[in-house]
Amino acid sequence: MQTMLTTTPIIDILEQQRQFFATGKTKDVNFRKEQLKNLKQAIINNKEAILQALKSDLNKPELEGYYELAVIQDIKYALKNLNAWVKPKKVTITPEQFPGTARIYPEPLGVVLIIGPWNYPFSLMISPLIGAIAAGNCSLLKPSEIAPSTSQVVAKIIHETFLPNYITVMEGGVEVSKQLLAEKFDHIFFTGGTKIGKIVMEAAAKHLTPVTLELGGKSPCIVDADVKIKAAAKRITWGKFLNAGQTCIAPDYLLVNKQVKQELVAAIKECIQEYYGDEPANSPDYGRIVSSKQFDRLTGLLQDGTIITGGKTNPTERYIAPTLIENVSLDAPIMQEEIFGPILPVLEYEKIEEAIAFINNRPKPLALYLFSKDKAQQNFIIQNTASGGVCINDTVMQVGVTELPFGGVGESGIGSYHGKASFDTFSHSKSVLQKTLLFDLFSLRYPPYKGKLETIKRLFGS
Ligand code: NAD
Asked: Could you tell me the pTM of the whole model?
């Protein structure tokens, strides 16, 4: 693996990409489609290697590996819609602009940097890349060093499929990230934690580079008393313990109506048993914590409350059992930082207003989950809370709706992607007004202004 890079090769690669971009080749829609097809084929050809790398980095079960391979569907979607996306969009004009037409032209930004995290280390590199290719950019990818096997597979696929002056990968850790961030890009797309997101934005500001920040945070999950508890528990348990809780939109903590707390806890315990057996450590369907550093951080969080179920750990395997915890102090790290692991605090409320106030008093989360049968209550919560997205009566599934832009707000992120939003994120909307010199309908604008004021007042509304 290429771990250390001097500044010179980065500058060289960037220069080569700028030169390639300047040839205008990436503006050709057929070229973009060709490259998307090449990427799709390369992923299909390397399917086994990708699944193995995910297994090695995160003990990801094969079935969950296929969730990452769903990027193939994203490529198909982009291929199907690209002709429509690239088309300039006509907008209406007011009479004083006659004769003329106004259109929005989506144009590529140039050379973009994509930095990825380790939790879905394949798809979170490739998914933004699809948008970058579709929009006609050159790209430089920096996968997470914390998932080294997947980082290598991403590098292999990209290096075998594309010329480095178009798309390339730089593997490595923080030092490589820092070297990259010192350079000027036309866009930076970052997926990772809020803390590093701030570092990325600060570095980008020096060059006035626009950023998309796909960050994390504490996504609450409200469970009201009127729902089928067993059905809610099934979906909560799945969304929380998928990938051993290392999912940016996993429910971070539960806010459950006091009346059904015991019933919900019992149902989640039952689901854990159904999904992973009596001993989840032996389940082929349960993941592991990515690194010892994360393992130590998470085992530290286990001290922040009373364990209801789970709590077992094994440092050699970096195993942490699916855990429910209560009596957590709101000032303790478990309620102050994103958990990002298989530990689920259970908090209770008596009136729904308390749950809403609790959420609104904290940083805006990436996802908000509500289990409730009451439509009026669902709408009330949609309208009276702020979050990147909302999912009612399910968890995590919102990420699978291609046409829903995916992203955070406030501390959970800036910008969004998926489907058309990916194309928009990597495009500049260029505004173009085209006029003719045939005649001048709006000649009132020219001085001298004498005798024109009354008409202008009437036209512009005073
Ligand atoms: P991270 O912020 O630690 O690292 C992300 C990337 O930043 C890595 O490639 C890493 O090498 C690089 N990096 C680390 N330190 C850096 C520094 N000082 N300067 C420059 N670059 C640096 O995030 P992570 O631990 O890989 O991922 C976990 C976080 O990502 C969680 O907070 C999770 O919620 C979030 N996440 C968000 C999404 C989303 O789509 N919104 C998806 C997955 C993960």
From this structure: 0.95
